Amino acid sequence: MTTGPRSGLQMFQEHLAAGGGPRQPIETLLGIRPVDVSPGRAVMELTASPNHHNGAGILHGGTYATVLDNACAAACYTTVTAGTRIVTTDLTVKFLRSATGESGVLTCEAEVVNRGRRNVLVQASMMDGAGRLLAHATCTIMIVD
């Protein structure tokens, strides 16, 4: 029997065991799905649709950034107590390849690189359905409380 406060990792694992699905309003809005978590790691998926595209018919840069940031925050959250507030203080995204409707399910995997007392450095990669790297991000997340 586990005593003490529930961890963010336990909260995510319970959520996924209960069927998963979006946890936050932004995930519902964009259709981001958490699919896997482990200590310091999170995987999210997005099936891109025309609603995610820019005027040129490719995935909007803001969609890339939002999914990458969301995955980074989830990876960070697995390292704190459930209910702890965290906030992104820096997000750098390198856009490497365009995604379109033919890109399949986009998968974003984030991993904690360094966990300090107050700041957490996380990196994330987004791949298309064929496993091609679309974007890479580094993110600094501050643990508020």
TrEMBL record:
Which residue intervals define the domain Thioesterase in the entry?
A: 57-134
Q: Pfam families, per this entry?
A: 4HBT
Q: What is its EC number?
A: 3.1.2.-
Molecular functions per Gene Ontology = hydrolase activity
Q: Which domain of life is it from?
A: Bacteria
UniProt xrefs under InterPro entries: ACOT13 (IPR039298), HotDog_dom_sf (IPR029069), PAAI_dom (IPR003736), Thioestr_dom (IPR006683)
Q: Does the keyword Magnesium apply?
A: no
| Keywords for this protein | Hydrolase
UniProt lists the family membership as follows:
Belongs to the thioesterase PaaI family.
Q: What is this protein called?
A: PaaI family thioesterase
Protein source organism: Streptomyces wedmorensis
